[in-house]
Amino acid sequence: MADLLIDFITSLDGYGAAEGWPGFWGMESPEYLGWLGEQPEHTHLMGANTYRLMSGFAASGEPGMDPMAAMRKIVFSSTLTEPLSWDNTTLVSTDAVEAVRELKATETTPLATLGSVSLCRSLLTAGLVDRFRVVVFPVITGKTGQERIYDSYPDVGLELTESRTFEGGLQLLEYVPRILDGPPSPQG
C-alpha cells in the first residue's frame, strides 16, 4: 500500500504563488534545493493548473526542476488532452479520489501531491492523506498573493512529526493529519 503525502510550499500568509514573483519566491537556497534532490522516489500527483505551471517551469530551466523530469507524474484533468509535453506524465480523466484510492491500494511507490489545492482538499476530505508537509517561505504576499491554499478546507488536527529550518529561514513542517468534526469542546 502506498503512502500519500500532501506537499505544499507557501508564503507565511498561506499563498501558493504570487503575481510577478518567481518560483520559490526567488528564495530557494542551495540547502533546500539539495534537500529536494535527496527526496525518496515517489509519484507526483497534480491537477491541470499545477501541471501547466510546473511543466512551464521545467521547460524554462527553473532551478530545482531537473530531478522532476525523470519522476513519474500523474495529472488529473478533464480539460487537458494527450500527449502531454512533460516526460513521464500520465493523464487521468476519471474521478481523482477514486483513482488515488486505487493507486494507494495497488502501488508500492509513495505518492505525493504537487501544488493542486483543490485536488489536495478532495484527497484530504476523503481521508486518503497519510502525511501533510508544508515548507513556509519567509515572505508575506498579501498584496500579490494568489491561490490561498487552505480556503474551504475542512478543519484538520495536525500532529507534528518533523520540523527543519533551511538556510534563508525556510521552515519545513511535517504532520499526520486528522479530519475534525468541528472545533474542540471547551475544557471546563
TrEMBL record:
Bacterial bifunctional deaminase-reductase C-terminal domain sequence ranges: 5-171
Taxonomy, superkingdom: Bacteria
Gene Ontology molecular function terms on file: 5-amino-6-(5-phosphoribosylamino)uracil reductase activity
Pfam families xref list: RibD_C (PF01872)
InterPro entries: DHFR-like_dom_sf, RibDG_C, Riboflavin_Biosynth_HTPR
Protein's GO biological process: riboflavin biosynthetic process
Matching PANTHER family: BIFUNCTIONAL DEAMINASE-REDUCTASE DOMAIN PROTEIN (PTHR38011:SF2), DIHYDROFOLATE REDUCTASE FAMILY PROTEIN (AFU_ORTHOLOGUE AFUA_8G06820) (PTHR38011)
Protein name according to UniProt: Deaminase/reductase
Species this chain originates from: Luteipulveratus mongoliensis
Lineage of producing organism: Bacteria, Bacillati, Actinomycetota, Actinomycetes, Micrococcales
